[in-house]
Amino acid sequence: MAGYEQALTEGQGGAYLRRHGLHSSLLSEWRRLRDAGVLEGKNPGERIGRPSREQAEIARLRKELAETQRKLATTQTALDIMGKARALLEQISESADTEQRHDKH
Are the CB atoms for 56 and 38 separated by under 8 Å? Predict the structure, then answer.
């Protein structure tokens, strides 16, 4: 899997799969089993059963948590930008007020 991940960063994911005679669906299944915790403690080549209900629920919750964290990070970034924009607008407004008072005198 590490070899495939490296190939992806180089834009060569498809070539890696073809070179090793793999299908992307196999990697999707492997990720699903990994995320469900089915692969923990297993040796290479050892038979792997289907994920239990608990393991499937854990995988679902991990995916949901990752998505929620991504949305939270986006929201925090948007709030930071909005705060900076507000501060900039206040600064511009204060500067304009100062210039108007200066022009009147």
Answer: no
- Average pLDDT value for residue range 43-47: 73
User: Which CB contacts under 8 angstroms, 24+ apart, belong to 91-100?
Assistant: none
> Does residue 24 form part of some domain?
yes
Domain that holds residue 68: 2-79
> Which residue do the tokens 């929620």 mark?
68
Per-residue pLDDT at 24 exceeds 90:
no
Please tell me the pTM assigned to this model: 0.50
Cβ atoms < 10 Å from Cβ of 1: 9
Q: How far apart are CA 51 and CA 10, in angstroms?
A: 32
